[in-house]
Specification:
The chain is an alpha/beta fold. It is built from eight helices and twelve strands. β10 (166-174) and β11 (177-184) form a beta hairpin. The two termini are 35 Å apart. The chain binds zinc ion.
């Protein structure tokens, strides 16, 4: 009986650590790639975004996801009729493994230029903890633009989640209709984050406040993010039908999401002020 209990404990512990490493089940789950609007496409997994911007001079990819997701991303690019080898520029939402651990491999395989917000460059180039590291070719600053083949993206510094967390915007031409796309870098406070007394990131709370100000100022038609679950991707996908309105055009959803994340942040900040030394759960 003791042996069985011990075995069960070991199995449960192992399962818990595997689950923690995998995040949620949708992280590595395959879904068919699809057009968001105009020349902007989703080639990521069921939850982790990889955006492809197709231009006459090659493609831009935003994010790589984990290294293990790369075969799936390449397959999705193929399925849409594009070529992975046409990737000219690689960008990222922020320097966390679920979005950028594979960017170095992508860069090696395609010869594309990696462009990263200044305050995330050190994390992008660092190795360890499942990160192979990647040399940054162009250091971006708040408000910088990235242009290729007539498409222009703007890098908005939205710090807090990471120091160089980046919200990407672009005006998408969708059959002559101009749509403002906003790809939120992150507005979430992860478990384990100290908003008060954070020695590695003393200005973290002020940075989050700056981020909410920026997000509230951006005009948004196409509401997008680093994770599909940020903007209800899996609920919206079945509504994407020819002849029906594009469910990803959701300015009200964007406003509500930003307001909800700001309220969650403010609540957590107040809680930590009252409970010093207790990180976000
Ligand atoms: Zn993150």
């Amino acid at each position: 009986m003791i042996k069985r209990t011990l075995l069960l404990t070991l199995v449960l512990t192992a399962t818990a650590s595997v689950l923690a490493a995998q995040g949620n089940a949708d992280f590595h789950r395959e879904i068919p790639p699809f057009k968001v609007a105009g020349n902007l496409y989703w080639v990521g997994t069921a939850d982790l975004s990889v955006y492809l911007i197709n231009t006459p001079q090659g493609n831009i990819l935003i994010n790589s996801d984990f290294q293990e997701d790369l075969p799936l991303i390449k397959k999705n690019i193929d399925k849409l009729g594009f070529k992975y080898s046409d990737t000219k520029i690689i960008l990222a939402s922020h320097a966390h493994n679920d979005h950028d651990a594979g960017v170095g491999i992508m860069k090696k395989e395609t010869g594309a230029k990696l462009m990263i917000m200044d305050a995330d460059v050190a994390s992008t180039e660092a190795t360890g903890n499942g990160r192979p590291g990647a040399k940054v070719d162009r250091v971006l600053h708040d408000g910088d633009t990235v242009e290729l083949g007539g498409s222009k993206l703007v890098a908005h510094l939205t710090p807090g989640h990471t120091k160089g967390c980046t919200t990407w915007t672009m005006v998408v031409d969708d059959n002559g209709k101009k749509l403002n796309a906003v790809i939120i870098g992150s507005a979430n406070v992860n478990a384990g984050t100290y908003l008060v007394g954070n020695k590695d990131y003393p200005q973290i709370a002020d940075d989050y406040m700056k981020t909410f100000k920026v997000l509230k100022s951006l005009p948004c038609d196409l509401f997008l993010g680093a994770h599909g679950n940020n903007f209800g991707l899996l609920a919206k996908l079945p509504k994407m039908k020819p002849g029906s309105p594009n469910p990803l055009i959701d300015p009200a959803g964007y406003k509500a999401y930003v307001a909800d994340r700001e309220a969650a942040f403010t609540k957590e900040l107040e809680r930590q002020k009252k409970n010093p030394g207790s990180p976000a759960a």
